Amino acid sequence: MSQEYWEHRYQTNDMRWEKGAPSPGLVDFLAAHPELPRTRVCVPGCGTGHDARAFAAAGFDTRGFDIAPSGVKLATEKTRTAGLAAQFQRADFLRDQPPMPFDWLFEHTLFCAIQPAERDDYVRALLRWLKPDGQYLAVNYLITDTDGPPFGTTREEIWQRFSPHFDLLAEWVPRSYPNRTGLELMFWWRRKAA
Ligand SMILES: C[S@@+](CC[C@H](N)C(=O)[O-])C[C@H]1O[C@@H](n2cnc3c(N)ncnc32)[C@H](O)[C@@H]1O
């Protein structure tokens, strides 16, 4: 979907994904892993920045990116109000070069927001934005919809796309927003040595 499409969704307040809080699965992951080094994390398709602020509050050097200028503006304003240090900028994750390499990349409703035909581009972008030993933490939305966004996926597709490039460290059913309970799976991947 284009920048114009997503910007229009913000301009018309058609933001059905907006829950006013970070992914519960991410909140639980961060609370469960105080031992992780607080390195640099990328949150592509960050929307209004709830997940990025959760990483920043946990001490990570956090950068959020969104194709829609209004998403970046809202995320920046909310983060300033919260007194947190996450930074945001406009970028097309699928097509742009990363401004810097990242230790972590967090996926939450970007994979399901792009056209399914762009999923090969998504995997290429992930490998471009992550450091060679980077880690990929994903909350995947396992719905069956074909008339998205959101567009559905399956565990089989996730495995087929990511396992050639990443070792799976863990997989679990996370705590979810009430209307997504039972529809999410989390995957913690570490990039394979080249
Ligand atoms: C369904 S929303 C999810 C927002 C946020 N992750 C959340 O869960 O609240 C998808 C977001 O991805 C952004 N987006 C879509 N395509 C993108 C792309 N190619 N690069 C960066 N952001 C993109 C949209 O503007 C929108 O903010």
Describe the overall structure.
The chain is of the alpha/beta class. It has a single domain (3-10, 24-30, 38-191), classed as Rossmann fold (3-Layer(aba) Sandwich), CATH 3.40.50. It has 6 helices and 7 strands, in the order H-H-E-H-E-H-E-E-H-E-H-E-E. Strands 3-2-1-4-5-7-6 form a 7-stranded mixed beta sheet, with helices on both faces. Helix 3 links the parallel strand 1 and strand 2 (61-66). The radius of gyration is 15 Å and the shape is globular. The mean pLDDT is 97. The structure holds S-adenosylmethionine (SAM). Residues 1, 6, 17-18, 44-47, 50, 65-68, 71, 92-94, 108-110, 113-114 line the site of S-adenosylmethionine.
Question: Can you give keywords for this protein?
Answer:
6 helices, seven-stranded mixed sheet, Rossmann fold, alpha/beta, binds S-adenosylmethionine, 194 residues, 25% strand
